[in-house]
Design goal:
single chain; alpha/beta; 11 helices; globular; binds nicotinamide-adenine-dinucleotide; binds UDP-4-deoxy-4-formamido-beta-L-arabinopyranose
């Protein structure tokens, strides 16, 4: 059972979403242990978490596929819940290296489950993704919308959900929450932690931020002939702090409910690429040069969530709007033009 004094293990906690979650957990009074192999993060993010919160956390540098490291963590700590972010997330790379993605994401999750089974901990919050839904989607996407991911990354997320569902069916003591994130963006309002992709960003918001700060020359807009209000792709962007807070609500929910649940975490609003560019320009005062190019293969015209289930069952709603997402992303990017040093330099 988790309470505000509980100890939470955060896998992948040095990463973008994980570091924001650590801030929220520490501020709520939880003890936090992070396990991360730093394949896509720097320890500096956790230093910043401690600075923001003025509270310490425990860091273990290890791969979640390393059974002995995980077993040691569970033996030496009384862990009440696990929030599981550790995974690889680049859609294009997953198509080129599917085995790497299945090994890291699925095998990693299986090792985590094994270690949890050897301990008394049966509470798990899993980072799933809106990418598990079938495309083109019927909008808005509810948790019951048909699934059918179109790439190995998305399939790894859906397979993990299925593994977790089987686990909870086999043993009713499990308390599992799969959270399907829409498009997490923005940064902590302190400007001390934020998204720091390695190499040229695959995602829209970090690309816009890097253009604004002068690391990239212009944004390529992938198509303006979609059936949307201005022809560019529409997505449900959600502030990473709102997203992090959704995990605390999921922990509260799991304290009262056994079994497995699935919730969308989004705002329910769809914004186009051009809406995002304009909002970022307004927040930063910087003009974003762009060029419209071909559609990106695999992209869908529009995707946004029905957030009713998270509101009704978790008591959670996003609070920040697109303006705040852009303002906070810009504060982070302008104060830390090179991020934590994970990313590459200009094109
Ligand atoms: P991120 O890459 O910043 O964070 C993932 C962290 O996991 C990194 O710090 C990385 O070093 C670590 N990691 C990866 N494999 C590991 C392993 N085998 N052992 C230990 N540590 C490992 O990504 P993020 O954006 O913070 O995403 C967190 C989670 O949320 C991921 O599972 C991702 O698939 C999921 N998700 C992200 C988005 C998004 O757009 N950012 C959307 C939906 C779901
Ligand atoms: C948003 C919009 C692009 C970049 C991806 C993953 C998904 C999830 C979230 C993890 C689209 C357009 C983008 C650019 C552009 N991640 N775009 N120029 O594709 O909704 O989702 O991230 O689970 O799995 O697929 O997000 O930010 O890449 O794209 O025009 O340089 O911006 O075409 O319309 P997406 P995105």
């Amino acid at each position: 059972m988790t309470t505000a004094r509980s100890t939470v293990l955060v896998t992948g906690g040095a990463g973008y979403i994980g570091s924001h979650l650590c801030v929220e957990l520490l501020q709520a009074g939880f003890q936090v242990i992070v396990v991360d192999n730093l394949c896509n993060a720097r320890y500096k993010s956790l230093d910043a978490v401690e600075r923001i919160t003025q509270k310490p956390l425990t860091f273990v540098e290890a791969d979640i596929r390393d059974e002995s490291a995980l077993t040691r963590i569970f033996r030496t700590n009384d862990i009440d819940a696990v929030i599981h972010f550790a995974g690889l997330k680049a859609v294009g790379e997953s198509t080129e290296q599917p085995a790497l993605y299945y090994d890291n994401n699925i095998n990693g999750t299986l090792k985590l489950i094994e270690a949890m089974q050897q301990s008394a901990c049966r509470t798990l919050v899993f980072s799933s993704s809106a990418t598990v839904y079938r495309s083109p989607p019927e909008l808005p996407l509810t948790e019951d919308s048909p699934t059918g991911p179109s790439n190995p990354y998305g399939r790894s997320k859906l397979m993990i959900e299925e593994i977790l569902r089987d686990l909870s069916a086999a043993d009713p003591d499990w308390r599992i929450s799969a959270l399907r994130y829409f498009n997490p963006v923005g940064a902590h309002p302190s400007g001390e932690i934020g998204e720091d992709p390695a190499g040229p960003p695959n995602n829209l918001m970090p690309f816009i931020s890097q253009v604004a700060v002068g690391r990239r020359t212009k944004l390529h807009i992938f198509g303006n002939d979609y059936d949307t209000h201005d022809g560019t792709g529409v997505r449900d962007y959600i502030h990473v702090v709102d997203l992090a807070r959704g995990h605390l609500k999921a922990l509260d929910y799991l304290a009262e409910h056994c079994g497995m649940t699935v919730h969308n975490l989004g705002t329910g609003n769809g914004y186009s690429v051009l809406d995002a560019v304009r909002a970022f320009e307004a927040a930063s005062g910087v003009t974003i040069p762009y060029e419209v190019v071909e559609r990106r293969p695999g992209d869908t015209a529009a995707s946004y969530a029905d957030v009713g289930r998270a509101r009704d069952e978790l008591g959670w709603c996003a609070e920040y709007d697109l303006e705040a997402m852009c303002a906070d992303a810009w504060r982070w990017q302008s104060r830390h033009p090179e991020g934590f040093g994970v990313g590459g330099e200009d094109e």
